[in-house]
Amino acid sequence: MTAWATELARPLVMGILNVTPDSFFDGGRYLDHQRAIARGRQMISEGADIVDVGGESTRPGAAPVAAEEELRRVIPVIEALAGDVRVSIDTTKPAVARRAVEAGAFMVNDVSASLDHVAAETGAAFVAMHRKGTPADMQADPRYDDVVAEVADYLAACATRATGAGVTEVWLDPGIGFGKTGRHNLQLLARLSELVELGYPVLVGTSRKSFLGRIAAGTLDTEGSPAPTEQRYEGSLASATVAMVNGAAAVRVHDVAATAQAATLVGWTRPAVPA
Ligand code: HH2
User: Fold this and answer.
1) Active site includes 270?
2) pTM over 0.90
């Protein structure tokens, strides 16, 4: 387990900063570098422990972005923020991960779980996330015999490969919404301890995702439309809290201030807290 993350009294809050035109919640808001940097600074003041900078949306059906464009989006933002907060780079491209670490990122957050060699080379921490399929097809009828067991097996193999490659700080992420139905996401949250027991810090990202819109609209098991992202705040906070209570070492969120309060509360209500 990672010393700096586990010594802290509370789970960590990773603030999401998408420097993209098309991310499903904050797309277009922070495409301008000055706005992105200002939002990063705001998240720091709201209690973010990590700011996760991304230059390519992973939402279902998102258009791929060339490495040059992704670099143009993220590098100035990382350079501006890395002196003040731990910055992670949310990418699946080796060249972007490398340049981001040079620019000050301490962690490679990789939804494809394939950049362990870059993390090893650069000395960065590494998040391996589970996903089934690609953004183009991942939500087309995903099926598992036992989603938690499959995700745990996959992440255990990723961790073994990453440590074997020389990564010194490995994090695991169940990949909420990446090739999973609403029921799959809920099972992963309910049985998160089975992932925590693998012995690596676990990161969970539920923020504003569509299963929360389904819960808000009462359509979890139906064909009805999910409630829009603006109506998923309560579910985001509640699901992040469930994840933290069930052992997540960090949660990846858009709503930093509220989640930081929840994280503090979770930290102070852990059994080991002295009277
Ligand atoms: N979710 C998204 C992106 N990156 N990384 C990790 N480790 N875990 C996640 O659950 C995760 C992630 C998708 O959310 P977002 O960045 O808000 O949207 P988009 O991909 O449209 O930019």
Assistant:
1) no
2) yes
